[in-house]
Structures are given as structure tokens and as C-alpha cells.
Amino acid sequence: MQSYRRDLRRYLRFLQARGRDTLAEVGEPDVLAFLRGLRDGSPGHPPLTAGSAARTVVAVRGFHRFALREGLTVGDPARAVRPPAPPRRLPKPVGVEDVARLLEAAGSDDTPLALRDRALLELLYGTGARISEAVGLDVDDLDLSGAVVRFRGKGGKERLVPVGSYACAAVDGYLVRARPALAAKGTGGPGLFLNARGGRLSRQSAWTVLRDAAERAGIAAEVSPHTLRHSFATHLLDGGADIRVVQELLGHASVTTTQVYTLVTVDTLREVYAAAHPRALR
Prior knowledge:
Layout: H1 2-17, H2 28-40, H3 50-69, H4 96-106, H5 112-127, H6 131-135, E1 142-143, E2 148-152, E3 158-162, H7 165-177, H8 179-183, H9 203-217, H10 225-238, H11 243-250, H12 255-258, H13 260-276
Antiparallel strand pairs: 1-2, 2-3
Helix pairs in contact: 1-3, 2-3, 4-5, 4-9, 5-7, 5-10, 10-13
């Protein structure tokens, strides 16, 4: 509420400085000029971040809607003004060498939980699965002989994804040498990845598995389950995979969503070019 009042006080001071004594005098150009001032800064006011500017515009739009509803004005000059879009945040993939260290750290011994952790992370990186998709797998969703897994994605949409040899070996080792012992402690549910009590592994516990492995591997960068999904996509594109194939593997409804990973790849290409070409800008 305090931020809302502060935003509106700033807006009203702006209108007064432009000679607008009543709300009826305010037009869309005034609102747009105010938005430009938020983004570019003004005397006594440094530029706002996209998030803060968007919050202020939302307050202004709400203020003008209220004025129109209460009969204080006959129009809404802010109706067509949209908050500034936040800058696109590029995924931060983990390098291939760091991924290898992470996966090695997950399976440092042959205990049932270590075998499960290695299988989980190998499958996440090897298939690009969302964490919710991985922990939601049943044993029957996996076909190791055919090296494919069936994921249920957003909106209940199913997709088949190939499983690489490393992930197949890790999951097979877990199924043979670890899952039976974990399942014996529970009610014998169909879940693929089980916790220490024999129940289905939760998203939070899977996140902890990854965080602990990253710590043991000495990886300083922030690592989350989605980091492995980012790395899966980026490494495929770096290796020459077609973006439409990557789209299908990730389960994106639109290739536009997948295209964000191409920006990461372009950055990598630009760095290599700048370091290697004799006429590159330094």
C-alpha cells in the first residue's frame, strides 16, 4: 500500500508540473510521458527497473480506472498504456565439464540413495525433463530396452524422449540394486524415484539432491533442476541439433520458447569469434 501511494504521489506531482490541474485534462500523451520518465529518469528520480516501472504503471492504470468508474472523468487515458516488459533473462547453462563433475558427485558410493541420486540427475540432464516430470515418472514409463521414456508434460501432454546410454546405465543400476530396498520400506507404489521411506520422491527432495551434488562437486554457479534442462538444450544446439528437434524433446508448445536457447549459443559463438579471429573487435 505504501508503494502504491508513493507511486501515485509521484504521478500527481508529474501532472502538476505539466500544468494538469484536473484529471479531466490528462490525456494519453501525459501518461506515456510519465512512463518514459520512469524508464529514462528525471531530475531527482533515477531510472526505475522494469519491475518497479511496471508496478508504477499498474498503479496509474488502476487510478484512472477508478476515476472513470466514479464519474470523475469521461475517459481513461491510461487504458492503452502497457507496463514495460521486463528484459529477457537468458538461461545460464552449466558447462559440459561441470555437468560431468556434478553427476560423478551424485553417485559417490553404492548405497541405495546414492544410486537413486545418480540415476535421477543422469535422467534430468540426459532427457531435459522438468523436475516435476521426473519425479512423476512411474516404473512403467521407462523402456530401457528401447532407450525411451514417456513424460507427461504441461497440460497432460505426453511425449517420448530418447534416453542416452549413461542415463540408461544409471537408471538400470538403480532399478536392480537400489529401488527394491527402498520400495520394501513403503507400500509398493509405482513411482520410479523413491525416498528413504519408500514413497515417491518429492520435487523439494529432488532439488536437495541436486544442490548437495553441486556442493560436493565444488560448482560455484547457482544450480537448480531447471539448470540441467537449460544445459541439455544448450549443449544439443551447440552440438548442431535442429531447434525443432530440441523443441520436441523439451515439450515446448511453440518454437518461440525454445529460441531463447539459441541466444545463449550465439553468445558462445561470439566469444569464440572475438578470441580467435584476427580482425575481431577487441
